[in-house]
Amino acid sequence: MKKKFMPEPFKIKAVEPMYLLGREEREEAIKKAGFNTFLLRSNECYIDLLTDSGTNAMSDRQWAGLMTGDEAYAGSRNFYNLEETVREYFGFEYVIPTHQGRGAENILSSLTIKPGDYVPGNMYFTTTRFHQERNGANFRDVICDEAHDPNRDDVPFKGNVDINKFQALIDDVGAEKIPYICLAVTVNLAGGQPVSMGNIKAVSELAHKHGIKVMYDATRCVENAYFIKTREEGYEDVSIKDIVREMFSYGDGCTMSGKKDCITNIGGFLCVNDKDLYTQATAMVVQFEGMPSYGGLAGRDMEAMAIGIREAMDYDYISHRVNQIRYLGEKLEAAGVPMVKPFGGHAIFLDARGFLSHLEQEEFPAQALSSAIYRESGVRTMERGIVSAGRDVKTGENHKPKLETVRLTIPRRVYTYAHLDYVADSIIELYEKRETIKGLQWEYEPSCLRFFTGRFTEK
């Protein structure tokens, strides 16, 4: 009989010791970090759920692949292996490696956006919107309304684009002002929510009808494919590989952070089908990243990324990955802890407004909750609310997202169910004394991407 939660589909070959600091040491550490978990040192964190970006455990095959690194300055054979792998699994014609996903975002935004353009997307992501706005674009959120409601657990694809919103933007500003739609699969800040194949097709049809490119944020495309396989009719017997390939067949390119669904510690790439855009991108990658055949990466890292792409398509791997999130979510849900539902593919997103109902949004409840979780347990998490949303580039006013969340992000192949038990028990204990958590105020606010390096004090 198959168990509800199967054991990890891997054996442990190497270990890294973990240490839990005492309560007083954790108090001192978070104060020294300005109540910003990004500024904690890694050795101060017991279980690190800050991000799944580059925090993955690589396989024995990937580690073996590192030893085959061809570190030639130009024409590395590892690049050609990566290029062949991306073409096979993603289907795009041209591949430009970059040091990580935001390198690809920078190139795409710089080459396609003119001041005054509009870029629609199914909810913003921090670095993506930064590069779009830096190049003069106006971001427009065209995600379905249900994505902004953490309690709507009856919508299996909360990452879907609202086609009527997309059409309204085209009618309002004109298709010539929209260089592309940014389609994230999955949608990080909505709670790791997926996009259905049916919606992808509809977005593609509308966009291409008006001469608008469809550019994916492909960072967690394998997780999105898993949800299509398990939630969308007609795909239950289709392989993850074939679902990924079909998803991308409706688009014109993608940006990719290899630090997520390529299961590596560094790397990314930009894919396009347009030869002219590819030629421009290769000229730009030389300016900012490196030669078009390495893009800021060592040959060994490109080899690990190519191997990781193949490993990520394994159903047992991705099923366990997503079920770890579900396991943690169900434990918290049973205790009444408020969170975004349904559970996403890479993290549990605590509803900080529901958790800390005594705090106003301007008191940064998600930032305060993330700090309190560390203080309580040594578990590092991340704010995803008003701080991450930043300020309007024109008015200077805070963006006030409806979702004010704390992200508990599970690295790939790193932690076991026992680690997640500790996380759940710690948060449940904190929830029972949540009224003791104080709000925060700015001590230092950077001019952009403030969540990375900003500092706070308690009110």
Lay out the secondary structure.
Elements (H helix, E strand, L loop, with lengths): L22 H10 L14 E2 L11 H7 L10 H14 L3 E5 L2 H12 L5 E4 L4 H9 L3 E4 L21 H11 L6 E5 L12 H13 L3 E5 L3 H11 L8 H10 L3 E5 L10 E5 L2 H14 L10 H14 L2 H20 L12 E5 H4 L9 H13 L1 E2 L1 E3 L1 H4 L15 E5 L7 H15 L8 E5 L5 H4 L1 E4 L1
Parallel strand pairs: 1-10, 3-4, 5-6, 6-7
Antiparallel strand pairs: 2-8, 7-8, 9-12, 11-12, 13-14
Helix pairs in contact: 1-14, 2-11, 3-11, 4-5, 4-10, 8-9, 12-16, 14-16
Outline: globular
Give the amount of beta strand, in percent.
Answer: 5-15%
User: Which residue ranges are poorly predicted, with pLDDT under 50 across at least 5 consecutive positions?
Assistant: none
Strand arrangement within the widest β-sheet reads: 2-8-7-6-5
Instruction: Kindly give the count of domains.
Output: 2
Discrete helix count: 17
Instruction: State the helicity in percent bands.
Output: 40-55%
Judging by the overall fold, what is the CATH architecture of the largest domain? Answer: 3-Layer(aba) Sandwich
Name the features.
Aspartate Aminotransferase, domain 2, Aspartate Aminotransferase, domain 1, five-stranded mixed beta sheet, 40% helix, three-stranded antiparallel beta sheet, 2 domains, single chain, 459 residues, 13% strand, alpha/beta
What does this molecule look like?
The chain has helices spanning 23-32, 60-66, 77-90, 101-112, 126-134, 163-173, 197-209, 221-231, 240-249, 275-288, 299-312, 315-334, 352-355, 365-377, 386-389, 417-431, 450-453, and strands at residues 47-48, 94-98, 118-121, 138-141, 180-184, 213-217, 253-257, 268-272, 347-351, 379-380, 382-384, 405-409, 440-444, 455-458. The protein is of the alpha/beta class and 459 residues long. The protein folds into 2 domains: 23-52 and 315-458, Aspartate Aminotransferase, domain 1 (Alpha-Beta Complex), CATH 3.90.1150; 60-312, Type I PLP-dependent aspartate aminotransferase-like (Major domain) (Aspartate Aminotransferase, domain 2, 3-Layer(aba) Sandwich), CATH 3.40.640. Helix 1 runs antiparallel to helix 14 (365-377), helix 12 (315-334) runs parallel beside helix 16 (417-431) and helix 14 (365-377) packs across helix 16. The longest helix is centred in the C-terminal third of the chain and has 20 residues, at 315-334. Its cofactor is pyridoxal 5'-phosphate. It catalyses: L-tyrosine + H2O = phenol + pyruvate + NH4(+). One of its GO terms (molecular function) is tyrosine phenol-lyase activity.
